[in-house]
Amino acid sequence: MRAIGVHEDVIVIASRVWQTTCTLVRGGEEAFVIDSPVYPDELEILPALAEQARFEVSGLLVTHADWDHLLGRLAFPEAAIGCGETTAARLTAEPGAAARALRAFDEEHYVERPAPLSLPGVQALPVPGYCAVGDRELELHPADGHTADGTVLWAPWARVLVCGDYLSPVELPMLSEGGSLEGYLATLRRLAPIVTQADTVVPGHGAPLDASRAAAILREDVAYLEALRRDGAGASLPLARRTAAQRKVHAANVARIGA
Prior knowledge:
The protein has helices spanning 40-52, 72-75, 85-93, 97-109, 181-197, 211-231, 244-257; strands spanning 2-7, 10-14, 21-27, 30-35, 57-62, 80-84, 123-125, 129-133, 136-142, 151-155, 160-162, 200-202. It has 259 residues and is of the alpha/beta class. The protein has one domain (2-257): Ribonuclease Z/Hydroxyacylglutathione hydrolase-like (Metallo-beta-lactamase, Chain A).
């Protein structure tokens, strides 16, 4: 697990698996943890890392309801979880789905955890809207398309955008169950003006990006999705993401849109 300070009030942690990111954001005397690392040892050291950096964690935020972003509760069992209204609705509609997906991952990779995942008392936050963290405010913007739910978070005082599973330097745009190509393109259009204001963009998977690299990935993702809509399986993949794993993602996208 790697930890990178991108601002005095923002630390980004990358898991060893899928480069899944977790972001600590501080406003004055209060801090939130956005999304999560994956492995038990990474989650175990997260509270100590936050304490050492003087981030007083009082709550958890999640960008969407995919299980690998929901594990902060295992590191901070007493902390409340906040998420966008669409994510809260998805968690309500799919009770136990995240815990089952985590259990399947753990069984496949021989991972043992000290406790199962439980997500009681999730608080739905209005999106678009704001969420206070200490004496600062995070802006919340809708981000569906990858899944049926999703929220991106903009910390204007730090000029940091935490965008969940968008703008990844290592993953193609992924149309998961409930997601849609048109929804994904709409989210990218909403992200574009925020990216121009950012010093740092934190994707859900991959290293933090500066604004110019994030904008380049956004253009690549728009081009890929438009080609996917037009050409189906024949769509060209972005050069840096033509790996065997991403070709499988592309094949799944083709099947998802019925091309």
